Amino acid sequence: MLKNFAAICAAASALFVLSASEAHAGINDFGGQWVNQSSDTDDVTRVSVQRTRTGLRVNVFGRCHPSDCDWGAVNATAFASRAGGDLERDADVLMATYTQGFARKTVLLRLNGANIAYEVFTEFTDRSGRANYRTSGGSHDGSSVRGPGGGRGPWWPWPRRRRRDQ
After folding, report:
1. Is residue 96 part of a domain?
2. How far apart are CA 86 and CA 83, in angstroms?
3. Residues 104-162: tens digit of each pLDDT
4. Taking the model in full, what pTM does it have?
5. Structurally, how many domains does the chain consist of?
6. Residue 130 C-alpha from the chain's centroid
7. Which of 69, 87, 98, 72 is nearest to 27 (CA)?
């Protein structure tokens, strides 16, 4: 089952990366706080990406009640769209894996202009019989969308808080 899940993740990752438009991005473009535009989402509410001396760390928060669940900070792996790419300049996808006791979640973050799109692949490991599933968020011009606290976007999937060129 683990081999099948790994094959599915690899295939989905390839499609995810291949569907991205050619962009000039790099590892530093992922850095910062990313906030989901929908305050009533039942999915990922925010993501923090930090660069450390030893690599990248991703911290995902998911919807829980009364407050969001902190999935914790884990190491992330960067990917370029081709083998000859330079991750410093060409990284356009990050992958992070969370083991939550009852499930393993693989999170893919993809740069999409000034936003980040995400996919979360959930594989249940608790023998509950639940079907493995995935969630994702797409990108669109959200300039008219109200974001958290009533502010104006673009908010979806997550807006850039800051850019390297600003």
Report:
1. yes
2. 9
3. 999 999 988 878 888 999 999 999 999 999 998 632 222 233 333 333 333 334 444 44
4. 0.70
5. 1
6. 23
7. 87
